[in-house]
């Protein structure tokens, strides 16, 4: 729309002019003239018109040495992508969103592994407090879980009861129920990844093998074959993991606590694989005096077929676990000595040392 003759450009613009004193043209009449502009109030110079940029002093362009490298730009992009996935804003001074491209596909699994333990609604999972991304490393700040592992914690005692085993199983299943509700499989629910903290609170740690159920076929990593005794039959057959795969691992841990042995004979690798495929569970090796509910729980969770096992939610509704609640106040009539369990833990520590040496890892003391 053009200006009418009744309104002159001079009266419309007032004192607005360029630094050289030339009046501004009529089509720029909307520009404010109440206060002089500074560089901080004008915003990004890339959005100014060319005639305005010419009137300002030119700034020296950054030297090549100060420009961010491609690797740093990729790291910044991965950081922004991770922060967006967990609902946090990156620090503007370190990761400016304007210069962050899409995160590379190779860094996405590392970011997804942090999802299971953040903002957990159950106290039985190690909590994630913060994460920092450098050009070479992803640093996770996790909750400090101080305490022994599950089996050494039991082996330190003179004896323990079936009620105490039920208490730990309740906490394992609560953690598995939460993960499965988030469509996440832990895939490494061995007793080595369970820490008993103060007040007898069990914490599930180590999400290095965790995977999402969003994938069509969930397969564990190659390192999973180092623990053949705890491998579910469907993984041995290459069928893929399901939520009942974690239930099998919990059943193996329950069997060890109630017998101080693995559920399947491990005299040889061939016999072990045959026993796992056929579900040859040695219930006769359990401690004497077990209740019928404990035996039924072991039978159901150690079924050779995944469709024959209950889910974590169904296990929590098992009468054997609910008759006294998650932490029974009534002591069990029968207690189990820890002599066999101590021998089992010693043999397992020897094998763990061999695995650390095989993979050139430093064993924590």
From TrEMBL:
Protein kinase domain: residues covered: 68-321
Organism: Equus asinus (Donkey)
Bias kind Polar residues: ranges: 1-10
SUPFAM superfamilies per the UniProt record, alphabetical: Protein kinase-like (PK-like)
Region (Disordered): 1-80
A Pfam family hit: Pkinase
GO terms for MF: ATP binding; protein kinase activity
Gene3D superfamilies with a match to the protein in the record: Transferase(Phosphotransferase) domain 1
Protein name: Obscurin, cytoskeletal calmodulin and titin-interacting RhoGEF
């Amino acid at each position: 729309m053009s200006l009418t003759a009744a309104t002159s450009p001079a009266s419309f613009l007032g004192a607005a002019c360029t630094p050289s004193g030339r009046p501004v043209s009529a089509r720029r009449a909307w520009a404010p003239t109440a206060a002089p502009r500074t560089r901080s109030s004008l915003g990004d110079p890339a959005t100014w018109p060319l005639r305005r940029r010419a009137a300002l002093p030119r700034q020296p362009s950054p030297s090549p040495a100060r420009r961010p490298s491609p690797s740093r730009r990729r790291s910044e992009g991965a950081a922004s992508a991770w922060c967006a996935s967990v609902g946090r804003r990156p620090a503007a001074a370190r990761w400016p969103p304007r210069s962050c491209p899409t995160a590379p596909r190779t860094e996405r699994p590392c970011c997804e592994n942090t999802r299971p333990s953040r903002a957990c609604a159950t106290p039985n999972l190690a909590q994630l407090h913060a994460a920092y991304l450098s050009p070479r490393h992803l640093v996770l700040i996790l909750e400090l879980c101080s305490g022994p592992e599950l089996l050494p914690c039991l082996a330190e005692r003179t004896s323990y009861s079936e009620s105490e085993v039920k208490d730990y199983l309740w906490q394992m299943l609560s953690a598995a129920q939460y993960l499965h509700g988030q469509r996440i499989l832990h895939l490494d629910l061995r007793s080595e990844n369970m820490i008993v903290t103060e007040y007898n609170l069990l914490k599930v740690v180590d999400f290095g093998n965790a995977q999402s159920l969003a994938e069509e076929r969930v397969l564990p990593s190659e390192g999973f074959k180092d623990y053949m005794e705890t491998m579910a039959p469907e993984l041995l057959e290459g069928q893929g993991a399901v939520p009942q795969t974690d239930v099998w691992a919990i059943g193996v841990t329950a069997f060890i606590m109630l017998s101080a042995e693995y559920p399947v004979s491990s005299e040889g690798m061939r016999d072990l694989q045959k026993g796992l495929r056929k579900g040859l569970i040695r219930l006769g090796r359990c401690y004497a005096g077990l209740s019928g509910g404990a035996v039924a729980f072991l039978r159901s969770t150690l079924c050779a077929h995944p469709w024959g096992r209950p889910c974590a939610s169904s296990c929590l509704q098992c009468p054997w676990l609910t008759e006294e609640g998650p932490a029974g106040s009534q002591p069990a009539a029968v207690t189990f000595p820890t002599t066999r369990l101590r021998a089992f833990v010693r043999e397992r520590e020897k094998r763990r040392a061999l695995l650390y040496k095989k993979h050139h890892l430093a064993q924590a003391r």
